[in-house]
Structure formats: C-alpha cells, structure tokens
Description:
30% strand; 6 helices; alpha+beta; single chain
Amino acid sequence: xxxxxxxxxxxxxxxxxxxxxxxRTATSLFLDPRQPLDSRQYAxxxxxxxxxxxxxxxxxxxxxxxxxxxxxxxxxxxxxDRGQRRVWNRNQDLSVVAHPPVxxxxxxxxxxxxxxxxHPGGGMDDPDPQKYVNFxxxxxxxxxxxxxxxxxxxxxxxxxDILPDxxxxxxxxxxxxxxxxxxxxxAVLWQIEHxxxxxxxxxxxxxxxxxCPKMSYKGHYHPLEAFLQGHWVxxxxxxxxxxx
Length: 244
C-alpha cells in the first residue's frame, strides 16, 4: 500500500539579526516542523538549497541579500590541492568509528571545549545537553556521529546525514588544541571519500558565504557546485561577483 504525503507547508520567518554578516537583517523560509521529513523527502529539499538545524529545515530568503549560497562537492570529480593532501596524509593515524546520534558525555565535553575556544559568546556554548542534542540530531533523518580518534583519545566528531543521493555535512567539532592537524579540513576530506565509498554523488556543505570567514572556507574544495537561480552550477566557472 502506498502512502501519499502532502508536501509540507513553507513559512517565512520574521526578520532577525543575521548570524553571519554583522549589521544585516535576515529572513528564512522554513518547513512546517509539524510535518516531519524522512531522509528521502529531506534530500529533495536539499536539492533545492535547504538545510537543517535539528528538526528545523530552512533556507535563507533575504530580500536585499543573496550572500548565502548552497554548495556541494561532486565527489567523483573532486581533486584535493597540495595543502589538502598534506592534511589528509598527516591524519592517517586516526581511526574513524560510526555512532548513533545519541548523547554521550565524552562527545559533549569535546563540543563544549570546541565552542568555548572557537565561538566564545556565540550562543552555542550553552552547557545544556538537550540543546546540543536538539541542534545536531534529527528524529526522522539518518544521522551518524563519526568519531575521529588517535588510539583511544577522541579528537573530533563529524555529524553527517546519510541521504539517498549524498552525504550532508551537518556540523564538525574537534579538539581546539590540535591546530596542526587541521581537523575541520580533514573531516570534509574524509566525508568526501566516504561518500565516494558509498557510491553517493554529492557531499552537501551547507551555505558558502564569501564575506564570512567562518563560512568562506567551503570555497576551497574544487570543483564546487552552487545552487543559484534554481539550478546547480559549477562555482569555479562563475564571474567573481556571483554570490557576493
């Protein structure tokens, strides 16, 4: 018996301060949270530039700004640059273990250390385990916490959604003292390789924002595809003014 789900309603948020670009006002489209999506339905919205934060599926929709550009890596065409190859080689002593998206104190303590060091006062260093779980997990989407360990020591976690047509890099946090390893870069490279192993064509990286240092790093993975004006296009082939 086939079930027919009506598509979720889409709402427009009230204007609020932009999280990425100081002094700007943002609005977002978001799906009705009372109509949960499974991984297949969510993948369809990912292809339209949406993203999730916990169970909230949203897309920036600002009247006077288009700085937030959804991007994804076509994993079979990706070629690491010299610096990325160095990072990859430097971290071959790490093991990776998959865990379900449930609360673990060891993960949470690393998350708190990461937030305190990298995003102090950013509102995400709240010592509330439930907020942490609500932010990273989702009740209906297949999410995995990939642990990166050196022997038994936990160095990082890549929170990843497994979708029918790709992986989505939800969030990564890691030991802020291990700067030389560039664990954030390594986690992206590992997820690209893992998507390839699973024979999934894309790694979705969320929103690339050229003017925001915390979000501009996504432009370092080539080739990179961007969702612009309703189509996925290769970002490297666009004029420099696009997405600004």
